[in-house]
Amino acid sequence: TNNIFKPAHTELKRFEMNIYNKTGVLVFTSNNIDLGWNGKYKGGECAAGNYAFVIKFETLTGVKNTKKGYINLFR
To answer: What average pLDDT does the chain have?
Structure first.
């Protein structure tokens, strides 16, 4: 099973991950690449469905990038 959503990582200077529900509410944010989303918001389980993610990072060489996509949460 895949119970935590987080990127496979390398060493980075900066990292930020935000996850939003279908109405645009921020349900998770983290600046710690080792801390992933467990499908919960304010202690309760989120509904099954699609959630948008935005990941911003900067590599050790100074390259900045943003990755956007969707994760499908199953219960």
So the answer is: 93
